[in-house]
Amino acid sequence: xxxxxxxxxxxxxxxxxxxxxxxxxxxxxxxxxxxxxxxxxxxxxxxxxxxxxxxxxxxxxxxxxxxxxxxxxxxxxxxxxxxxxxxxxxxxxxxxxxxxxxxxxxxxxxxxxxxxxxxxxxxxxxxxxxxxxxxxxxxxxxxxxxxxxxxxxxxxxxxxxxxxxxxxxxxxxxxxxxxxxxxxxxxxxxxxxxxxxxxxxxxxxxxxxxxxxxxxxxxxxxxxxxxxxxxxxxxxxxxxxxxxxxxxxxxxxxxxxxxxxxxxxxxxxxxxxxxxxxxxxxxxxxxxxxxxxxxxxxxxxxxxxxxxxxxxxxxxxxxxxxxxxxxxxxxxx
Length: 333
Fold this sequence. Notes:
This protein is of the alpha/beta class. The chain has helices spanning about 1-35, 55-60, 75-90, 135-145, 165-170, 175-190, 220-235, 245-255, 270-280, 290-300, 320-325, and strands spanning about 65, 95, 110-115, 125, 150, 200-205, 240-245, 260-265, 280-285, 300-305, 330. It is built from eleven helices and eleven strands. The chain is globular and about 60 Å long. About 30% of the residues are buried.
């Protein structure tokens, strides 16, 4: 009897040990595959800073269209807006790399993809013949390419996106922190004045153009005074807001303008200067894309320098003024 009990005890002990080992194994496996969590914690899922999964967009979609990234804000806006218009026309998915600086200024709706070096720089390239000439052949070239595409060149023609003008203006909605700074500046300028002012933004580009040999003309003080005179004859209670990278020159040239209230704004932040100009009712631009876009987004009347490119310069073949300036803008010499 004792021997039987001893044998039974050993069998039960062995089964208990096996059960214990099995239970411990299950616990270990669960801990390995399941993050640490307690009943008092809330489970969260880490999300990538992306609109859609990476694999869907930049690896297997083959229907993506990405703008190039060239130089400063005005150029970036043309590249994005033209890519937007082309993408809508040929049913491509517009994308923008997460590291593109234009995203710091505007509330863009394009799908966000990983860094440009890992995405758009690996795409097929397509480009128009000239940078500021509308080239409708690009639509077929993009449509016929069954791979992801990056558009190369500046695409500086309003004709690529005029059909979607209202959408483009929404795309270029300025972020709140920048718009708030611009609003504070204009509010401070208008303090103590009546509520029916007509704000006219003036962008004077000089800076780098003084030393460039590409082929740009630089506006004269006579042009600015003539443009102001035109607005003075058309509107009442005007106030002119000047933003420039050559403010000393602008102050001197506009110092003898009579019967016009002129304020000079210098923030050292291009995006804030831009927001100030966009918040105005009308625009006087000089040379370049920064002032162009300020006028386009501000709406109202836009006066532009009629001949910004030197004849017979290397830049001249790149421009068709009817493609660069909307027909409803006002050109002055």
